[in-house]
Amino acid sequence: MKINCNDADEVGNPNSQIKYEIVEQQPAGERMFTVNSDGTVSVISSKLDRE
């Protein structure tokens, strides 16, 4: 999965910086996913039920 984001601020402006972060998961517990700085979401848990 990949998350895309666009910002209309001028390039190089501090307001144009985009940060990706997973802030909460339901239900709480072992982390299932991670997201890197370019917006790529990866599964990190082998316990994820993919059905």
UniProtKB/TrEMBL annotation:
<feature type="domain" description="Cadherin">
    <location>
        <begin position="1"/>
        <end position="51"/>
    </location>
</feature>
<keyword id="KW-0106">Calcium</keyword>
<dbReference type="Pfam" id="PF00028">
    <property type="entry name" value="Cadherin"/>
</dbReference>
<protein>
    <recommendedName>
        <fullName>Cadherin domain-containing protein</fullName>
    </recommendedName>
</protein>
<dbReference type="InterPro" id="IPR002126">
    <property type="entry name" value="Cadherin-like_dom"/>
</dbReference>
<dbReference type="GO" id="GO:0005509">
    <property type="term" value="F:calcium ion binding"/>
</dbReference>
